[in-house]
Write a structure and sequence with these properties.
This protein is α/β, with parallel strands linked by helices. 42% of the residues lie in helices and 15% in strands.
């Protein structure tokens, strides 16, 4: 097949998944070209090293003078016209390029991208998750009225709060409506878990199909001796990844406490500095590592006692299967997609999302190294059987062929 790819992703799990998908499609003999806006992270697993990549203009308009005076961000509504223009420009090339199928991926600005509206060939969207901020209390639903103000009208502070609320509400309405219309444009929506399939149904009222992700499972021989007494975190330095939860859990272990090493690729809202300060305050040995090499990461995964993985309502949890492939058991919160990637008592431990529950699991693995070794071996075996990158790419290829076939085209 000749496959057109569109994406707008930062560094992170979704980009790792796309990189693996592209490599797998190429290995199966397919032709692949990629389109994207210039706001992507091109330094992290660049696709241009594998396929032709077309970077098409997309410029977010600057904040207006009133935005600056009221100290509010530029409206999401202002991003719609340039994103439509970008998508139409990409679609014009794709429609004329003799492609069999569009394989679109999540957009960092609009979870369901606009490109599907304008492409006339069969089109598939791999949606990592809807824009969850509009459908979850994070920490408050976007549609709720503002909380009572501490400022009296018509003070400037009250006006700023009111303007910010109206902007947030308008952003939510415009973005949610655009995402729904965009999602409806695709012939098929693929998702990463059963939980994500339910999320798409709740958010959009649309059906989707689970197409599980995979990871590299050939990661060298597993360590033979006991693991070292430290724990790992893996994921962006971001509030959504629950760094505080892991730090609070380690703080509940008796002294001398094990070290927590967190490996991330992105620092959002100074989360790394805040986590470092919080760890020092609680007396937790903490090391924050940014964008280390694959070899260095593999060394840590082979030596740690376990991965502490506590992001709330994580749709899939790519880090969990990456750890498992290295024989590292996972202590994960018993929520969302982790209930599909971690088998409690077999490949890791699923616990309540509390510091106490995570600390109890961590203490047990420290006290019972044979349990940690057994869980790690079983995790590696399960990863080879279930979560291999080859199997994931087989699933994706079959889904793309099926959509092309249903459109009456030869695949």
């Amino acid at each position: 097949m000749k496959i057109a790819i569109w994406y707008n992703l930062p560094s992170g799990g979704a980009k790792r998944a796309l990189h693996g998908h592209v490599r797998g499609l190429l290995e199966r003999g397919h032709q692949v070209e990629a389109w994207c806006p210039p706001c992507c992270d091109f330094t992290y697993l660049p696709l241009a090293e594998m396929v032709p990549e077309h970077v098409v203009d997309f410029t977010i308009p600057p904040r207006t003078s009133w935005d600056k005076r009221l100290r509010i961000e530029r409206a999401i509504a202002a991003r719609v016209p340039p994103m439509i223009a970008h998508s139409q420009a990409c679609a014009a090339k794709i429609n004329q390029g003799g492609f069999d199928v569009l394989f679109a991926n999540t957009c960092m600005h609009f979870a369901s991208p606009f490109i599907g509206r304008y492409v006339t060939i069969p089109k598939v969207l791999y949606l990592q998750e809807p824009a969850r901020g509009y459908y979850e209390a994070a920490p408050r639903h976007a549609w709720l009225p503002p909380e009572p103000s501490r400022h009296a009208p018509p003070s400037l502070a009250w006006l700023r709060e009111r303007a910010a609320y109206l902007r947030r509400l308008r952003n939510a309405q415009v973005s949610a409506a655009a995402e729904l219309d965009n999602a409806r444009a695709y012939d098929r929506i693929l998702v990463n878990s059963l939980y994500s399939r339910e999320s798409v149904l709740r958010a959009y009222g649309l059906q989707s199909k689970v197409c599980y992700l995979g990871t590299k499972t050939d990661r060298g021989p597993l360590p033979l001796g006991p693991r070292e007494p430290f724990f790992m975190g893996l994921g962006s330095f971001a509030p959504a990844k629950s760094l505080d939860l892991a730090i609070e859990a380690i703080a509940r272990l008796p002294a001398p406490r094990p070290k927590l090493i967190w490996v991330g690729n992105l620092d959002i809202d100074d989360s790394k500095a805040r986590a470092t300060a919080r760890a020092a305050e609680l007396g937790v040995p903490f090391e924050a590592l940014m964008r280390i090499s694959d070899a260095a990461l593999q060394d840590l995964l082979h030596r740690a006692t376990a991965l502490i993985y506590g992001p709330r309502l994580e749709p899939f949890g790519l880090a969990a299967i990456e750890a498992a492939a290295s024989g590292l058991p996972v202590i994960g919160v018993a929520e969302a997609g982790l209930r599909e990637t971690v088998i409690d008592g077999v490949t890791g431990m699923l616990v309540a999302a509390t510091p106490q529950a995570i600390a109890a699991a961590a203490q047990r693995l420290l006290a019972e190294p044979e349990l940690a070794a057994r869980l790690g071996q079983q995790a590696a075996r399960n990863a080879r059987q279930t979560w291999s990158l080859d199997a994931a790419n087989d699933r994706l290829e079959a889904a793309l062929r099926d959509v092309v076939a249903q459109a009456g085209r030869p695949a």
